[in-house]
Each structure stands twice: as structure tokens, then as C-alpha cells.
Amino acid sequence: MEWQLAAGGERKLKWPWGSAFQSEFCHAAGHDTTAVDTYPASASPYGCFDMSGNAWEWVNDVVDDAQHRFTFLRGGSYYKAQHTWHAEGGPHPTDFHLKFQLLNEGLNRCETVGFRCMKEAHDATNR
């Protein structure tokens, strides 16, 4: 829920920058991830960059339902595999998530999955 708010704001934007997909606002294709400030127009209402495209973001703790272990990925990735793969490529809107199966204790390496460092924000009176 926090990721979705950071990405779409209180207006619940479909994309971090507005209501329509614009490929020039995100890393939609390529051969590697890009620096976080490469697409300044991608900023969400809260000023977060790269909330769509670049790398899938691991945003939730591990869930174990006694049959499967999984987490959720958000945002999408620049990488679009030419075959069936466990993580669909391309940028995705703020209301999309991918259930990511954790198949072993090593958590499986995947160069298109990243994470976002967060910290609690306080207003000026709580600093």
C-alpha cells in the first residue's frame, strides 16, 4: 500500500506521471538498468523516480501460505523476455503487482528485480 501511494499519490494516478503511458517517461526497453535520475519526468506526486520500468521492485515481506512462499513485485522492468518467463517485462501501471514465487532459500537471482530503500517521512514539527 505504501508503494502504491508513493507511485500514484492520493489521486491514485494510473502511471506515476499521470493517466496515460508515455514511453519517454520511463526505461521501457534496453540492455541494462539506468541511473535513477535518467527520466526526471517520471517523478511521482511524492517525487519518487523510476516507479515504472527500469527494475521490478520487491516491496513486500515474504508471504508463506503453507503451500507456497512468495512476495510481490511492482513497477515492471525494462527487460522483456522473448520467451515465457516468470516475470513479465515492460513498465506496468501503479495498480499492477506480480506474485513472485520464491523457489528456494537462495531467493533465485534475477537481474531485473531490485528494491527501493525507504524511510519514514515526518513533517517539519517532528524532526
Rg (C-alpha, Å): 15 Å
Distance between the termini: 24 Å
Under the CATH scheme, the architecture is Alpha-Beta Complex
Approximate helicity band: under 10%
Low-confidence stretches: none
Q: Output the structural class.
A: mainly beta
Q: Give the SSE string.
A: HEEEEEEE
Oligomer kind: single chain
* Biggest sheet record: 5 strands, mixed
Number of helices: 1
Percent in strands: 15-25%
What is the class in the CATH system?
Alpha Beta
The CATH homologous superfamily is termed paralog of FGE (formylglycine-generating enzyme)
* Named CATH topology: paralog of FGE (formylglycine-generating enzyme)
Pfam family, one: FGE-sulfatase
Protein name: SUMF1/EgtB/PvdO family nonheme iron enzyme
InterPro entries: CTDL_fold, Sulfatase_Mod_Factor_Kinase, SUMF_dom, SUMF_sf
Organism: Paenibacillus roseopurpureus
Summarize the structure in words.
- The structure is a single chain.
- With 127 residues, the protein is mostly beta strands.
- The chain has a single domain (1-120), classed as paralog of FGE (formylglycine-generating enzyme).
- The protein has one helix and seven strands, in the order H-E-E-E-E-E-E-E.
- The strands form two sheets. Strands 1, 2, 3, 6 and 7 form a five-stranded mixed beta sheet that branches. Strands 4-5 form a two-stranded antiparallel sheet.
- Strand 2 and strand 3 (69-74) form a beta hairpin.
- It is globular, with a radius of gyration of 15 Å.
- 26% of the residues are buried.
